[in-house]
């Protein structure tokens, strides 16, 4: 994946009338970027928060997130883009916010939140490329405008927010497992967080009742036959990468309740 810088992300935002900020329904607080939101506001664009992967959480929870964010002043839609659920609601929201039509839409968010799925859901089967977007050097030089219908055009490039923050933030915001010098601490902090919200998550995913992150990683490694050739010790580094990948593939089931976000004073969107 080619990650955008903030400068190149700004180029994508500038070319749009409406920007969709895509959040992971399991972690909407941590996958929000206040820096992106300030950029969109400073450039005079309209912003919609899109809670994607809503099929991974109860509908009542998605509804509560929607109310919370709308009370903060942000139009919000929840959807499951990979199943094309919620696409019509998203289109209606875009048109409601558009000052005029046709409206140009950009999609932005951290890696792994499903930006490309949302672009594809909006484009649908009958969209057609119009022309490359002019004046788009570097990262955006191949950007295409797609005509969704007479009223909506979409920039066919996801605005990938640079992954910043501490270890936990980098995990849930989509840092690739291969980019961690040692994936074990990253997996351990994720495991602790997941167990806090779903004590059965790793029993369901890997068949282990262990609660200690390192024992969970040992279980995964031994179950799959991953051992160091020299010592025959479990290869927990590979197990850690598996956990990080499986988290982003939605194979590890949990979600953060909206009450936790409210209790912490909405302080979880740091970057």
Tell me what you see in this structure.
- The chain is of the alpha/beta class and about 270 residues long.
- It folds into two domains: about 5-160, 3-Layer(aba) Sandwich (Rossmann fold), CATH 3.40.50.300; about 165-265, Conserved Hypothetical Protein Ylqf, Chain: A, domain 2 (Orthogonal Bundle), CATH 1.10.1580.
- Helices cover about 40% and strands about 15% of the residues.
- The protein has eleven helices and seven strands.
- It has helices at about 5-15, 35-40, 60-70, 85-95, 115-125, 165-170, 185-195, 200-205, 215-225, 235-250, 260-265; strands at about 20-25, 45-50, 75-80, 105-110, 130, 145, 150-160.
- Strands 3-2-1-4-7-6-5 form a seven-stranded mixed sheet, with helices on both faces.
- α7 (about 185-195) crosses α10 (about 235-250) and α9 crosses α10.
- The chain is elongated.
- The two termini are about 20 Å apart.
- The model is unreliable at about 130-140 (pLDDT under 50).
